[in-house]
Design a protein that fits this description.
The protein contains six helices and four strands; from the N terminus they run αααβββααβα. By secondary structure, it is an alpha+beta fold. Mean pLDDT is 74; it is low at 162-173. It has helices at residues 3-13, 15-26, 36-48, 83-86, 92-105, 149-162, and strands at residues 52-55, 64-70, 74-80, 110-117. It has a four-stranded mixed β-sheet with strand order 1-2-4-3.
């Protein structure tokens, strides 16, 4: 099965499970930077599927970084706890699991990282820096020297629109 089909199958097969997870988190609202229940549930879910989880990333109790795989490329997914689970788009934890399933199924090298990010409603969670080697990945903490995720997304869009192997858009029901 190709990577695209693996991802779509994974998303379809686990829809109810992730709808239940989203419902459980939505039914226990938490204030910004205190999303202990949401953080724990999502981190536990990724851990149950073989991701190694570093909790308390950047010195914040409710942040975490989950990793699976090794080497390059490293594909990171920013997961805001509430927004990513209640939107009509693919929930971020499900996207990370589907991407990893495709990586394994197609025997591709690389690492999937999931960045658990609190306080999306106040925009403060992203400003707490998690330090990595190299240049900051989120420009808000160091706007003159950081990398812009938007620049990366725009470059990917241009590159994929020029490619004969452009991936068809899939929508989450």
């Amino acid at each position: 099965m190709d990577a695209e089909r693996t991802i779509l199958t994974h998303l379809d097969d686990r829809y109810e499970h992730f709808a239940d997870l989203a419902r459980a988190i939505r039914e226990r609202p938490e204030t910004a930077l205190h999303e202990r229940y949401a953080s724990r549930r999502i981190a536990d879910e990724l851990e149950a599927h073989g991701f190694s989880v570093a909790r308390g990333a950047g010195g914040m109790e409710t942040t975490f970084v989950a990793r699976k795989g090794s080497g390059s490329p490293v594909i990171g997914i920013l997961g805001e706890y509430t927004r990513s689970l209640v939107s009509r788009r693919t929930p971020a934890p499900c996207a990370a699991l589907a991407l990893d399933a495709a990586r394994v199924e197609t025997e591709l090298a690389g690492t999937v990282r999931y960045y658990g990010c609190p306080a999306e409603e106040t925009l403060t969670g992203k400003t707490f820096k998690v330090h990595f080697r190299g240049v900051a990945a989120y420009a808000a903490g160091d706007p003159h020297d950081g990398r812009s995720a938007l620049d990366g997304a725009m470059l990917m869009d241009v590159a994929s629109s020029r490619s004969p192997a452009t991936i068809a858009a899939a929508t989450w029901p």
